[in-house]
Amino acid sequence: MEAHLKQEIIFTRLPEIKPNEIIAHMSDPRVAEHMPLLTFEWDEAAVAKFVATKEGYWSRDGLGHWAILVNNTYVGWGGFQKEGDEWDYGLVLKSDTFGVGAQISKKAFEFAVADKRIPFVTFLLPPSRKNLGALKRIGASFVGEIEYDGAEFRKYRLETRC
């Protein structure tokens, strides 16, 4: 998808996506390259567990990760997941749609600014992510290096309240 064209971005729920689409997405080695926690093979059982877990966050917190459609085509998943007292933002796009990440994130951050529950968002990025210019451009600040589920990450924070 060409990032410079006007894209209709829709946030929907993961159960709306066919499992084979998620399997193909999450089995792409270009996607897995920056996901140190992705240590298993995706099949229908893995998708069912993944979707159930993400839907559980919606039940618990009233918010969670969305399936993301651009022009009615599934391009990935992401959104806000509560980790302790913080809302962590994640975005996992299909490799052929990496270019629309900025537009998707802009819409997600507009949602966060409008949602009183989210005074700031955090980002956990693996050390393999070298291009961090977008985080600086949006005003995110480096918090520190942390371990999460046995993997090392760089943690950033973006204030959503002035």
Plain-language structure description:
With 162 residues, the protein is an alpha+beta fold. The chain has a domain at 9-116: Aminopeptidase, CATH 3.40.630. The chain is built from five helices and seven strands, in the order E-H-H-H-E-E-E-H-E-H-E-E. The chain has helices spanning 19-26, 29-32, 44-61, 101-114, 133-138, and strands at residues 9-12, 65-70, 73-83, 86-93, 120-125, 141-148, 151-159. The chain has a seven-stranded mixed β-sheet with strand order 1-2-3-4-5-7-6, sandwiched between helices. Helix 4 links the parallel strand 4 and strand 5 (120-125). Helix 1 (19-26) crosses helix 3. The longest helix has 18 residues, at 44-61. The protein is globular. The N and C termini lie far apart (34 Å). The mean pLDDT is 89.
Number of helices: 5
Major β-sheet profile: 7 strands, mixed
Q: Strands of the largest sheet, in order across it?
A: 1-2-3-4-5-7-6
Work out the number of β strands: 7
Any idea what the shape is?
A: globular
The CATH topology of the domain at 9-116 comes to Aminopeptidase
Rg of Cα set = 15 Å
CATH class wording of the domain at 9-116: Alpha Beta
Structural class given helices, strands, pairing? alpha+beta
Amount of helix: 25-40%
Mean pLDDT: 89
Measure the end-to-end span.
34 Å
